[in-house]
């Protein structure tokens, strides 16, 4: 029985990892806009080294970033949950809010935290 479960899991692949991007695709009513947002969600992950303005790269020494990271994890889980739901009125709005927060995190919060934490480090050195 266990080997059958592994065979099924191997055949299907990790489909649950793509649910959040599928939710981003569905959250925008325009088809082209949804496709662009989905690819933009993937591209923004590749841009993290350039977006992050913090002098410290380890999150062990960045307490504000550690808290913000768990907000991103929660958002990713919400997007994954929305990606497997039917397209109905409460799920559409939740997906749109979670999509906005996803891009807001990478394009506003991440660079802002880097600048804020760098300024805090420089002021504590004086």
Write out key terms for the chains shown.
126 residues, mainly alpha, Helix Hairpins
Number of helices, counting only DSSP H or I runs of 4 residues or more: 6
Number of domains: 1
**What is the residue-mean pLDDT, rounded to a whole number?**
86
**Uncertain parts:** none
Number of distinct beta strands: 0
Coarse morphology: elongated
Oligomer: single chain
Radius of gyration: 18 Å
Overview of the molecule:
The chain has six helices and no strands. 78% of the residues lie in helices and 0% in strands. Helix 2 (19-27) crosses helix 3, helix 2 (19-27) crosses helix 5 (63-83) and helix 5 runs antiparallel to helix 6 (89-125). With 126 residues, the protein is an all-alpha fold.
Topology readout:
Elements: H1 2-12, H2 19-27, H3 31-46, H4 48-51, H5 63-83, H6 89-125
Helix pairs in contact: 2-3, 2-5, 2-6, 5-6
Care to give the gist of this entry?
The chain contains six helices and no strands.
């Amino acid at each position: 029985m266990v080997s059958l479960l592994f065979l099924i899991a191997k055949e299907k692949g990790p489909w649950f990892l793509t649910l959040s991007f599928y939710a981003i695709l569905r959250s925008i009513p325009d088809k082209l806009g949804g496709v662009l947002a989905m690819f933009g969600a993937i591209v923004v992950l590749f841009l993290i080294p350039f977006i992050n303005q913090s002098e410290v790269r380890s999150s062990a020494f960045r307490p504000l970033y550690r808290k913000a990271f768990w907000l991103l994890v929660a958002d990713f889980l919400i997007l994954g949950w929305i990606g497997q739901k039917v397209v109905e009125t409460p799920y559409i709005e939740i997906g749109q809010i979670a999509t906005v927060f996803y891009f807001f995190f990478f394009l506003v919060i991440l660079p802002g935290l880097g600048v804020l934490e760098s300024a805090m480090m420089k002021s504590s050195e004086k």
